[in-house]
Design a protein that fits this description.
This protein is mainly alpha-helical and 308 residues long. It contains twelve helices and five strands. The strands form two sheets. It has a three-stranded antiparallel β-sheet, with helices on one face. A hairpin with a 5-residue loop joins β2 and β3. It is globular. This is non-specific serine/threonine protein kinase.
Length: 308
């Protein structure tokens, strides 16, 4: 993955709260939220559930666009209606169905979007306790409190994303991301321009060089760099030495995923396109969402990072 010089949203939100005592503005949160929805919609169109959405995994590039990082918890071959049951994720962002030890689907990602959007606009998590038992109880049964400064459109969006029943959650139907795209909160978004990165980000990192680390906490940048010690088998090793080293990995195989095509379900793509056709008639600005499915055979995804 290339260097995301703008740092992560956790860093930027913390700084915003420290300086202004509140979260991001709604326009700024809307921009980030729209790019996140496009990214997750693309993953879902390729039958991938992300499962670890949080501010620390949302990075900014040099222009201020969102990058989703850390695909270690992704699950492939999950289309609409499919389920998995691995308990994984970050405690504060876990969806209720994961905590209840139920089978869950791709809708867990939309719960994560709700938590992230709430955090960006309110400057705090919707549910929090240092005691994980209490935290999980809040996620399962706690009511959400909204600051009075939030617009009605923002409250409706968050309430829809943070529905505890995944079947009733915004984005939980077969239309997936399209349900969220047509919410009133995102009504002013030009989705075609957003997809093509033609909309100027609300914040552009002020960096001095390609190696600028000013948007990363000194707690991390001040740590000494410790490289993995090299093996005795260097680039000038003999063929015999290289073969001897390879015997240590006889039980492992290597598969180059870079540039390989993602698996897809042929039956799901026409359904997704049909939904997009309806959306085009209702709202021409959402036509580009169709690209998320229409290009699934032409695009590849390196499971190291995703750039929208």
């Amino acid at each position: 993955m290339e260097f995301a010089i703008g740092g992560d949203l956790y860093y930027h939100l913390n700084r915003e709260v420290q300086i202004h005592k509140e979260g991001f503005s709604e326009p700024r949160s809307r921009f980030y939220g729209a790019e996140i929805v496009l990214a997750l919609g693309y993953l879902h169109a390729n039958n991938i559930v992300y499962r670890d959405l949080k501010l620390e995994n949302l990075l900014l590039d040099k222009d201020g666009h969102i990058k989703i990082a850390d695909f270690g918890l992704c699950k492939e071959e999950i289309k609409f209606g499919d389920k998995t049951n691995t308990f994984c994720g970050t405690p504060e962002y876990l969806a209720p169905e994961v905590l209840e030890d139920n089978d869950y689907g791709r809708c867990v990602d939309w719960w994560g979007v709700g938590v992230v959007m709430y955090e960006m606009m309110c400057g705090r998590l919707p549910f929090y306790s240092q005691d994980h038992k209490k935290l999980f109880e809040l996620i399962l049964r706690g009511a959400i409190r909204y600051p009075t400064k939030l617009s009605q459109e923002a409250k409706v969006l968050l309430a829809g994303l943070l529905v505890k029943d995944p079947h009733q959650r915004l984005g939980g139907g077969p239309e997936d991301a399209l349900e969220i795209c047509r919410s009133e909160f995102f009504r002013c978004v030009d989705w075609e321009a957003m997809y093509r990165k033609e909309i100027e980000p609300p914040y552009k990192p002020n960096v001095q060089s390609e190696t600028d680390t000013s948007y990363f906490d000194k707690e991390f940048t001040s740590q000494p760099v410790q490289l993995t010690p090299p093996n005795a088998c260097g680039p000038l090793a003999t063929v015999d030495e290289q073969e001897e080293m390879q015997t240590n990995f006889t039980q492992f195989s290597f598969h180059n995923t870079f540039g390989s095509r993602l698996h897809e379900d042929d039956e799901e793509v026409p359904a997704f396109r049909a939904a997009c056709q309806v959306m085009r008639q209702q709202s021409p600005g959402l036509a580009t969402i169709q690209l998320l499915a229409a290009r699934e055979r032409k695009h590849s995804l390196q499971i190291d990072f995703f750039l929208i």
